[in-house]
Amino acid sequence: MEAPEGRGIEAQRQRVLSVEEWLRKWSAGATAFHKEHGHPLLQKHLDLLVDGRSGLRIFFPLCGKAVDMKWLADMGHSVVGVDVSEQALKEFFADQNLPYCEEPVPGISGAKKLQLKVTVGNAEYSSTTHATES
Ligand SMILES: C[S@@+](CC[C@H](N)C(=O)[O-])C[C@H]1O[C@@H](n2cnc3c(N)ncnc32)[C@H](O)[C@@H]1O
C-alpha cells in the first residue's frame, strides 16, 4: 500500500502543467489565479518580509502579472519578476499603465527582458520565453 505522502506527490505530479499549457492558458485568458487586488497573505505578512528594511531586491518567480510587484516597487523596493509567458508580462505593464523597453537576455536564446522605462521604485520585470526544466 502506498504511503499517503506518496499519493500526495503523485497527485502533485499529475497537476504540473507544461510550459505549453501555461502559454495556452495565458492566450485563452484562463487566468483565474490572478488576484486583481494583490495576494492577501503577502499583505498580511508584509512586515515579516520587509522587517523594517528599505530598498530590498525582491524576486518574483512565476510572477504572471501580479499587482504585488508594483505595490512593492511603489514602496521603494527593487522588483524582478520572471515568467515564461511574455503575454503575462506585457499585460502587467499594460494593466499598470507603465512604459517598458525590451532587450534580449545575454546567454539565454529567445529570452527577453522587459524593463520599466521610467524608474518607479527601481522596478524591473523580466520575461524568459524559454523555461528551464528542473
Ligand atoms: C499559478 S500562476 C501564478 C502567477 C502569479 N504568481 C500570481 O499569483 O498571479 C503560475 C505562473 O507561472 C508561470 N510559469 C509556469 N511554468 C513556468 C516556467 N517553467 N518558467 C517560468 N514561468 C512559468 C505561468 O506562466 C504562470 O504565469
TrEMBL record:
Key words of the record: Methyltransferase, S-adenosyl-L-methionine, Transferase
Ranges in a coiled coil: none
Pfam families given in the database record: TPMT
Entries under Gene3D superfamilies matching the protein: Vaccinia Virus protein VP39
UniProt GO molecular function: thiopurine S-methyltransferase activity
UniProt xrefs under InterPro entries: SAM-dependent_MTases_sf, TPMT
GO BP annotations listed: methylation
Protein name as annotated: Thiopurine S-methyltransferase
Species assigned in the record: Bambusicola thoracicus (Chinese bamboo-partridge)
